[in-house]
Amino acid sequence: MTGQVMAAVAAPTADFSNDTWWIWVIKAVAILVFLLLSVLVAIWAERKVLGRMQTRPGPNVHGPFGLLQSLADAIKLLLKEDFSIRGADKVIYVLAPLIAVTSALLVMAVIPFGPEVSIFGVVTPLQLTDMPVAVLYILAITALGVYGIVLGGWASNSTYPLLGSVRSSAQVISYELAMGLSLVSVFLVSGSLSTSQIVSAQTEMWWCVALAPAFLVYLGSMVGEVNRLPFDLPEAEGELVAGHMVEYTSMKFAWFFLAEYINMFNVSAVATTLFLGGWHAPWPLAWIGDGVLNTGWWPVLWFVGKVWLCMFFMFWLRGTLLRFRYDQFMNFGWKVLIPVALVWLVAVAVVQGVRQFTDTDLRTMLMWIGGIFAVLMVIMLVWPEKKEDQEAAAEADRSDRPATPRTRDEVLPAETTFDPFAGGYPVPPRPGQKLPDSPRRRRREQERRKTVTATATRQAPEATKEGDDG
Fold first, then answer.
1. Which of 1, 60, 237, 387 is exposed most, by the fewest CB atoms within 10 A?
2. What distance in Å separates the CA atoms of residue 210 and residue 344, rounded to the nearest whole number?
3. Where in the sequence does UniProt note compositional bias of the Basic and acidic residues kind (predicted)?
4. What's the pLDDT tens digit per position in 359-386?
């Protein structure tokens, strides 16, 4: 192995030997306060960013620059009426949001915010804890968090929440695989699953540069993992009226809402730790004063700045892209992200095997391979469909459209029944088309006809009697 990988393997984990119980309490409370305050700021920042992108001011009434708007919304949720659904499973209905928010709060425990500092005279790393399999711990906790969504949708005893929870389970399975595969290449080149050691391995170069394809796969996976646009299918308000959260109110709804934003910070912190150098200063600043900006409390600033850069990326996506169709969403996960992550993982494993017998520089090899791989990914994503497929789709579209209207009857043609699932996914009806009657509607229509017939039968003798009396 080269010196860099040997240094990564031999780098000691964070030293917690000086920590006492009150240091643990201070760190845990600091992480909790950081997440809660960050969520309030993130809600305000997202609304501001979306407002600027959509040519409107965003929050600007409560407090300076609208900064108190998030606090007002939180108080409103706290004071709203809290009710339960009659047919819901009471225990699981209440337990589901607790699972979601608890899982979200546990991830930051192994994220390093900075190097060793002195807290009230005790030298300790800016990290609550670390372990040899810290990244596996993160993946396990994120996988556990989906149970809150799935159980919440199932326990609500309602159609839309159930559909949202089923979508969420499929989404997490799909994108958790791609995320895990994208992280394995980081383990291979860092020589460890410890978060502190992975950060130490990026002293010379961040893995987002050397492992660019894995970083791109992780970016796509992390957006899908936290149910954000364009992957917010479990809570698609245009289709499922908020999905798994439909039947929740007040603080139970707020817990789900809080868990979503905390998970955004979690995936951003993991991206920062594993790909963006962790708490290390950016390249121009890393060499100022012999690395003085990488010591003390300065690294906390760089870490938080990188996290917010990833948060802005998710805000930007929400203001730019439309929600995927479900088939597009599954195709992207299984046919693009997972194959790309697998091929890149094999390439990194081959590079690591070749380096066992040569002195080739790791960074140079990975940058060349990653550059070629990234170009192929872009070409694959933007490559147009086959011409015959486009012509067939255009011909089918033209055949479905009515001829150029000339009269009022042609403008409003007779309605025809069509199959909305003929193409494999549901599509809305066009002018002149109607959906087939649902079984529930047919039953209502039959009941209405029976009622009308029974009423007419009762009224017929009365009308005959009145005629005889006349």
1. 387
2. 12
3. 391-411
4. 666 666 666 676 776 777 677 666 665 5
Provide φ and ψ at 122, rounded to 5°: -105, 120
DSSP code of residue 333: I
* pLDDT confidence band for 7 (50 / 70 / 90): very low
DSSP letter (8 states) at residue 119: E
Give me the count of residues in the chain. 470
Residue 140 amino acid letter: A
Pull the structure tokens for residue 439. 């079984």
CA dihedral 359, 362, 366, 368 (to 10 degrees): -50
Name the residue with higher pLDDT: 230 or 425.
230
Question: Does residue 262 surpass a pLDDT of 50?
Answer: yes
pLDDT classification of 237: cutoffs 50, 70, 90: low
Paired tokens of 32: 């909790």
How far from chain centre, in Å, is Cα 5? 32
pLDDT confidence bin for 470, thresholds 50/70/90: low
User: Encoding tokens for residue 397?
Assistant: 């579209």
CA atoms within 13 A on the CB side of 420: 11
What is the number of structural domains in the chain?
1
What radius of gyration do the chain's Cα atoms show?
29
Q: Give Cα 391 to chain centroid, integer Å.
A: 35
Please give the single-letter amino acid code of residue 211: L
Q: Does residue 308 register a pLDDT over 90?
A: yes
Q: Is residue 1 pLDDT above 50, yes or no? A: no
- Comparing CA positions, the residue from 425, 317, 369, 350 lying closest to residue 210 is 369
From residue 13, how far is each of 110, 195, 397 by CA, in Å? 12, 8, 61
Residue 362 lies in domain = 18-282+292-382
Q: Is residue 274 part of a domain?
A: yes
Q: CB neighbours of 338 closer than 8 A, spacing ≥ 6?
A: 174, 177, 178, 181
**Residues whose CB is less than 8 angstroms from the CB of residue 180 and which lie 6 or more positions away in sequence, other chains included:** 139
- pLDDT at site 32: 92
For residue 124, the surrounding DSSP H or E stretch is strand 122-126
| Core vs surface per residue 211-242: b (16+ CB within 10 A) or e | bbbbbbbbbbbbbbbbbbbbbbbbbbeeebeb
What is the C-alpha separation between 435 and 349, in angstroms, rounded? Answer: 53
Residue 31: which pLDDT band, with cuts at 50, 70 and 90? very high
- For residue 402, whether the previous peptide bond is cis, meaning omega lies within 30 degrees of 0, is no
Average pLDDT over residues 120-149: 87
Residue 7 lies in a domain: no
Question: Is residue 202 one of the residues assigned to a domain?
Answer: yes
Which of 226, 102, 94, 80 minimizes the C-alpha distance to 152?
Answer: 94
Determine which of 135-149, 180-194, 409-423, 455-469 has the lowest per-residue pLDDT on average. Answer: 409-423
Report the predicted TM-score, pTM, of the whole model to 2 decimal places.
Answer: 0.74
Token pair 């599954």 in the structure block, residue: 330
